[in-house]
Amino acid sequence: MADMVSIFMSIGLNEQKAKETLKNEALSSTLKKAIEQARGLLGSASIDKTAGTMLYNMVTRLKDSTRLSFLTEYIITRKINSELQLSAALDFIKSHPQENLDRLQFDAACGVGVVVTPEQIEDAVELIIRKHKDQLLAERYRFNMGILMGEARTALKWADGKIVKNEVDMQVLHLLGPKTEADLEKNSAAITACLTAKEVAEVTLNYKTEGYVVTPNTMNLLKKHLEETGGQVRTRFPPEPNGILHIGHAKAINFNFGYAKANNGICFLRYDDTNPEKEEEKYFTAIKEMVEWLGYKPYAVTHASDQFQLLYDLAVDLIRRGHAYVCHQRGEELKGHNIPPSPWRERPVEESLLLFDRMRKGMFAEGEVTLRMKMVMEDGKMDPVAYRIKYTPHHRTGDTWCIYPTYDYTHCLCDSIENITHSLCTKEFQARRSSYFWLCNALDLYCPVQWEYGRLNLTYTVVSKRKIIKLVETGIVRDWDDPRLFTLTALRRRGFPPQAINNFCARVGVTVAQTTMEPHLLEACVREVLNDTAPRAMAILEPLKVTITNLPTSTEVRVPDFPANEAKGSHVVPFSKTIFIEQSDFREVMEKGYKRLTPDQPVGLRHAGYVISVQRVIKDGCGKVCELEVTCASSDSVEKPKAFIHWVSDPLRCEVRLYESLFLHKNPEDPAEVPAGFLSDINPNSLTVIGSALVDRSVGKAKVFDKFQFERVGYFSLDPDSTSEKLVFNRTVTLKEDPGKI
């Protein structure tokens, strides 16, 4: 059995999935044959996870086993490499049962060899957007985007669906701009309509939700709940205070607070502080700070620990009702999904009550006993633990308690106590839905409804608390707010505006399926916001000194904060005989297509009203250009130059930090992509520090997190490491435009 599990895991199945597969003898046998055939085709090479997943999906759906080797060959040779192609292949085989298949017909039906280029996708989507342009402009984000995707998928049958969706999203964003507050409220209302398609929003119909357990007292409890809440929608955002929030939490925050707002309801911020070993004050503070930074104000800030006494009393009641018992099995005996029933499951109620009281009084060692609930969860796990012993002082309650409730016990009861109407949680908690309903009903308490939605993940990053701690401990990143991470504190430090993060979450939407997005889509939302909100300044990252020999006198130049809308303000910068330009804006030898400064080609200075021409190139002892002597002429008196460049005069020295992706691969946690583990996948160029950059004096009074567009360079934010002697700027994102074309 162990050998078979290893074989199945070698194609990318996790251990649990491999063991589940083994329970089906026919499936196991066919999958083993497919793997053997695949290995025969590959020789010494291993089966990667993508091909392994395709093989598994093919085997589970294939009705005619005589076609196994045929389809395995197509998968391993990458002729079939998408779910869409696999479905077409299986349909073709089903409709062509004859012994000899026509390979040409099969290839055509399955899109074998068809390559859809990015340009074809862009052109097709552009035509579809143009077709619906008037309606899109009128309805904005209320327009049914599924129409666009449907037409795009029809026009681009064999294109990668994710790439098509990304292109649709980008072109819609380009047409409509970022979502306004009005759009976001309408989006929340649309989410509400989607969620309640099977029922109306009133909580009195919660009992019609799939899986909801109705007892003889359900309607009375719902009626009492309505009397206490007036039918108000009540949600909660319940993080554990043992780490910093990340981009996935931003979706949860937007959904919980947005759903409540769209329904004129309220949302609680509740800390699930039931594990004193991992909780710290800095996490409590940072979580609340990030929720408020995103623009949301909790109706109330509560803690699971507020209810410790009531939760204990309810546990005693659960034992009395015969639904819980004290168990002496150790932690290692309770791991997995096929654990045998506890030998103490049927112990007398009075005995469990006595032992639970002794647990409360600290008369057992940690791990010696637990309180378990008599129920089976949806994933087959039997009798989950309700209470365990931990001799660790609690952040809020000190040494009052030495037993602490688990998530499975606490979560639904706190929801019930706070009269939450909708428990919105990510898809992995679906396996806990039955225990959620069971526990409320076992104690005869009001039971909220639980809805699950797909997580939001980003490529090229990790968000696991354990892995981020590893990155910090090994010195790869400085702390949880290192701008290369995708924690919310890191994104704030890098300069991402909260509005952009909220817009990104709204664009992603709420679906049951897990969503994995590329970072550049988030960055596009950032640019859209900063383009309208970040005032312009000029900065030089790699300075080259320029002396203007014929400038009559020093002067000042007025620079608009927003060149596209000069009414939004301006600032003044000095302009003297000595200025600095980027080294890349000068080339001693002219090259085809180069439009900036050369000995034979003048260039304009942005905002200054001058065109400069090189008179002398000065080099250091190593032959490197270190200074230029130029003459200037009014831009009105000479031919318009091919390009205008930015510059600084009498500047401030500053440090600039440039960031790239922290990891080299899209999925650094995937052993198929990164066999040596995520720590081996660090991008050595993820951080570049420029210690001697120059910036114009208009930013001298900037405050931490103030944001600017350094013209022709990118968007930057002032870092907390800044001092009165030296400013430090983080590059938030690059500009859309290629600086070489400006």
Automatic annotation (TrEMBL):
Described purpose of this protein according to its UniProt entry: Glutamine--tRNA ligase. Plays a critical role in brain development.
Family: Belongs to the class-I aminoacyl-tRNA synthetase family.
Protein's name according to its UniProt entry: Glutamine--tRNA ligase
Residue ranges occupied by any Glutaminyl-tRNA synthetase class Ib non-specific RNA-binding domain in the UniProt entry: 3-161, 164-189
One annotated Gene Ontology cellular component of this protein: cytosol
Domain Glutamyl/glutaminyl-tRNA synthetase class Ib catalytic: start-end pairs: 232-531
Major localization class: cytoplasm
Catalytic EC class: ligase
Species of origin: Cyprinus carpio
Keyword Ligase: yes
Taxonomic lineage of the native organism: Eukaryota, Metazoa, Chordata, Craniata, Vertebrata
Domain Glutamyl/glutaminyl-tRNA synthetase class Ib anti-codon binding, chain residue ranges per copy: 534-632
Catalytic activity, as annotated: tRNA(Gln) + L-glutamine + ATP = L-glutaminyl-tRNA(Gln) + AMP + diphosphate
Record's subcellular location: Cytoplasm, Cytosol
UniProt KW keywords: Acetylation, Aminoacyl-tRNA synthetase, ATP-binding, Cytoplasm, Ligase, Nucleotide-binding, Phosphoprotein, Protein biosynthesis
Record note on quaternary structure: Monomer. Part of a multisubunit complex that groups tRNA ligases for Arg (RARS1), Asp (DARS1), Gln (QARS1), Ile (IARS1), Leu (LARS1), Lys (KARS1), Met (MARS1) the bifunctional ligase for Glu and Pro (EPRS1) and the auxiliary subunits AIMP1/p43, AIMP2/p38 and EEF1E1/p18. Interacts with RARS1. Part of a complex composed of RARS1, QARS1 and AIMP1.
EC number(s) reported in the record: 6.1.1.18
GO biological processes: glutaminyl-tRNA aminoacylation
SUPFAM superfamilies per UniProt: Nucleotidylyl transferase, Ribosomal protein L25-like
GO molecular function: ATP binding; glutamine-tRNA ligase activity
Domain tRNA synthetases class I (E and Q) anti-codon binding: 644-719
